[in-house]
Fold these 2 entries.
Entry 1:
Amino acid sequence: MKKFVNVCLILAVAVMASSCNCYKKMAKKADEVTISCNPEVLTLKGQNIITDVTVTFPEKYYHKKAVAKVTPVLEFEGGSIEGVPQYFQGSKVKDNYTVIDKKTGGEYTMSVSIPYDPRAEVSTLVMVVEAKCQGKDAEMVEIARIPVAEGVNTLQNSVDYTSALELMSDKYEKTTVISEKANIMYNINASNVRKNQLTTEQIKALEAFITENVDKDRVTLGSVYANGYASPEGPLAFNDKLSKARSESGKKALTKELKKVEGVTYDAAAYGEDWDGFKELVEASNIEDKAMILQILQMTSNPVERDAQIKNMSAVFEQLAEEVLPQLRRTQLVATAEVQNLTDAEIKAAIEKGELSKLSLEQLLYGATLIEDNATKAKVYAAATKYEDARAFNNLGVVCAEMGDWASASTAFAKAAKVSSDATINNNITVGALAEGKYAEAKQYLAGASEEAKALASVAEGNYAAANGKLSGYNAAVNYVLDGNYSAAKSALAGDKSAEAEYLRAVIAAQMDNASEASAYLKSAISLNPALKAKAEKDVNLKGIEF
């Protein structure tokens, strides 16, 4: 691959009018001085544009009394940025600069590091040379401006930060199960339903529930169950029969009460001694020895042994007989109904008609997942933010980022963080800050971010080795290219036929000096995404590649 900058560039010094012989004589042999860059193309690494510039002075060249100042300057449309200058001096200059011996000459490498400016992708690195002869009042005179490199390799910025963003889930249910319960209570050892048990508020609420939902649109009423129980006292076989008798009597009583309501199915089930209910009531009670009772329940599984041990605690048993056991002599009546909520088609239709105000929070959050167009998704999530729910703000931020609007994305993530401290939001704030180049802000949230976000932070800092093995797909490939591992990069791209993947394959081929292959991949990328043509035109990695 042909680079922008040749390895050796002639130092063509344009000496300004001056009578000082010390650097005039140096200028006559300027063609013997060489400057080279490594890498030959300026590279964005971390937050800085870097390269090493090596200046080689030949033997019998550098004047013993000359002082030279070489300043790297990155020039681009609309501005320029200066790097740290390097000073050189002849062997007779009384100063502390790098000495270039006249007899032997010398070589010095400047590590150039210039803060990144997005405008500098199309730029020229110029070495500004100033010189003077030794003297207290001597002033530096600019004698040359030498271009040494053009353009900046900004492949590091090609990582896809949106891949590390996380959506927060909706809780929408296509069907909802609703229910109503009521208890018919019995006297000890009895299974007959007393009249006062059919006039309680619970029974009336249950009857109203059944009547309302038996033939209601979008509602399917299930069977109404009568579940009989017995308190855990007395013979086990007797209690089994008693619970069955109670379930049957409870079913019969309710059926009679609702005889005018058509379409209701009734069923009965017997559960014998209600040890689970017993345990719950004891745990919720203030019985002094409840810890001992609970220990018996835990250590003894046989119901007969349990009953015997508890009855042996005579004082405690009296309290149980008064406060707990009566609540277990019952038939529990249970009615359930399945409610069909809005279908996918109905939700999508409401969105397409712009009737977002008619949808609930969960319907909006779910509805957005049914939409392909990001602009419409953003409108749906924006409508959901009226509920002041963190998920709405967070998901709006993700969609804004996917649309390339990272400023709006970060604003949305910040609003989500005011409502919730969910780890997903912390992760997205980190990723948003990285994407906007706000590395100091990203570090504040990095500890709680995902491993992918942490790896992307390593890439942003130029620590590519640290990110190896922690990214996948396209992002892993970008990092491997940055780290010089082209084979691993190709493997990471396997199966990815996106425009971005084809473009990166073109860069890899160009780096490996395979111009024809790079051209084929680049043409493929542009055919998939014509906008990549403009990117390729200023990409130093693809200089000279036909498309």
Entry 2:
Amino acid sequence: MHDTTKAEDWPAVEAPSGGDWSKLEDVLRESGAVFWEVDANGIFTYASSSFTELLGYEPHELVGVRNVDSFYPADMAPELAAELRNDWLSQHRPFHHAEVPLVAKDGRVVWVTSRGVPFFDAAGKLQGFRGTDIDITQRKEVEAKAREADRFLLLQISAAPVAIAYTTIGSDQFRMNRAFVDLFGYAPGEIPTIEEWFRVAYPDPAYRAEVARVSSEMIERAKAGDVPAAPREFKIRCKDGTVRDIEIASAVVGDCFFGTFTDRTARNRAQLMLAEKQKQLAHAGRVAAVGQMAASLAHELNQPLGAIQRNAEAAQEILRGDSPDLAELRAIIDDILGDDMRAGNVLDRVRNFLRKDHELSMETVEIPPFLQDTASLVRREAAARGATLEVSTDLAMPAACADRILLQQALLNLLLNAIAVVPEGRGRIAVHARKDDDGTLVISVSDNGGGLADEAAERLFEPFYTTKSDGMGLGLPIARTIAEQHGGRLVVVNTPGCGLEVSLCLPFARVGDAMP
């Protein structure tokens, strides 16, 4: 660029005195700049000593010898050469050229920012120019490296196997790589702007507005740079009309905003299929558990049914008499109704437990009665093996939020496993519930079944692996899945020669809290 001020608008510039030259030399050496003076023909009449560092010439090699344009490289851009000669020789005006190439004594090209002003005699005749050149070669090299880095980055983006779209911050232009085109099917010319991309990718206006809001938050987080913006998943319509589940991550590099698009459709479909298989597996586990509890369930039903039969027989005897005691009959009928409800509750409990379409349903669960109810289902199995079954809880145990049926299934699996491994006639099984300091509900089942060998312990959660001859190998895997569905975990402590302690560790959530 150059200054377009007319020559007559500039005052005459006097040459520095001898002392001023010395001071100027000191300043120039410190700043890395050079100062020069040329006559009206461009021949050097003065050159600062800093020319030696800039171009390799001593001042005496320049003064009276070299013309300014002898430093211009032969391949200088013609328009720049014409502009320089016009400023210097024709217009006689002050100039400022941001980037000028000069050839050093050793043949190197040095880039400078050049400024100059004309000076005139008393009659207004041009006497020459005085000016400074400041070395910007290093800056130019840095800029060149930056451009090369940008070019390399764009090449990498173009060849990247993951879909990438990017734009310059403040611009609406939308650019994409080859993988992006392959994933969504849109050619670059079809979606030149971000606005157009949002229109075709999110056709539903309400969903588009929500995505735009979330995207703005992601951009601001990416700009901040201190906390990476978490990837978000959106449903994006492709050119062929299909809708894909796409995970988008964002980042800011320089003045560019980048988004990576990862197709999660197959993964999500697989997760849904896995969830369905887990549901089927859990149902199979419940069916197996009910089979193992058949004797206890029969006992629970026999008690109220037997009582109903005895009360009915007693009522018949009373009715055979001449003067039936109505009060006694009313009491008998009340007993029959109560026993009928007990039997119905048992059947409802089994029916709910066996429901195939069971979904996670959170409710308040009082832990002490829950443990007693669950333990009552397997007490006959424990007694048949000659094992003692003890249930205890910490004092003031708070209620938990859980799916009662699934939690009962998990605990039953642990109890049935323990009953199967304890020694006959001297087995001991303990169920204990406590609340840890971190707010975790821990329900532990421990036994004296001797524990597991190292190989068996390593395969403990492997589906269908079992050390029992009649086992399915599903109890612990299902229990762990149920714990994870509740946002918890299953912890096993194996003590070879002594026994196992298996703990359900669940958060003390409240009803209505979102589960993972």
